[in-house]
Design brief:
single chain, alpha+beta, Alpha-Beta Plaits, SH3 type barrels, 2 domains, five-stranded antiparallel sheet
Length: 180
């Protein structure tokens, strides 16, 4: 395909948009109201809140959205002045375009609810020191042995002078470095 065809705006291209802090949803809504096709990849993540691990839906790429437009029929100018948008990303004078294959691959990796579920491996490594943060054993320090079924972990705790393996909910332990 001729490179002039790619730059003349005759085909829709995905552009990268930089949003204001926590402005992804605001920008997405306002861009869609203007008739732009917007892709906002989201991810389920675990966050520590008040000593407990909780699931939260957040931006896969914080402060970034993908906006598709046909440059022959649509201008980038309204995007830059849209509520929630900080700017359209560019390198020098050239606006960044993202290959459609990349955006399609991201879309295909979402679950049915439109969210990415990342598996980043276990939060703990075997042999790492953990602290129990809730329940009858709260405050005790132990050694992480392994993850178990049903979101549980096996921890080696020193109880009454003996080392004992205890199965606990994964949410009730955290790395000792984060406990205080």
């Amino acid at each position: 395909m001729d490179s002039a065809c790619l730059t003349n705006g005759s085909i829709p291209r995905w552009h990268l948009v930089f949003t204001k802090p926590l402005g992804e949803n605001t920008a997405k809504i306002n861009l869609e109201r203007q008739g732009f096709r917007v892709y906002f990849p989201r991810v389920q993540e675990k966050v520590l809140s008040r000593g407990k691990w909780r699931d939260r839906i957040g931006a896969l790429f914080p402060r970034y959205l993908f906006v598709q437009l046909n440059a022959a029929m649509q201008s980038l100018a309204p995007i830059r002045s849209t509520l929630g948008v900080a700017n359209v990303v560019r390198f020098g004078t050239e606006f960044v375009t993202v290959p459609e294959l990349v955006v399609n691959e991201l879309i295909e990796r979402e679950d049915v609810s439109g969210v990415h579920r990342l598996s980043l491996g276990p939060l703990f490594k075997p042999g790492s020191i953990v602290r129990v943060i809730e329940g009858a054993l709260a405050g005790l320090e132990g050694i992480f042995e392994r993850g178990d079924a049903n979101d549980r972990v096996v921890v080696l705790l020193k109880l009454l002078g003996c080392e004992t393996r205890i199965r606990l909910p994964a949410a009730s332990v955290m790395p000792d470095s984060l406990a205080y």
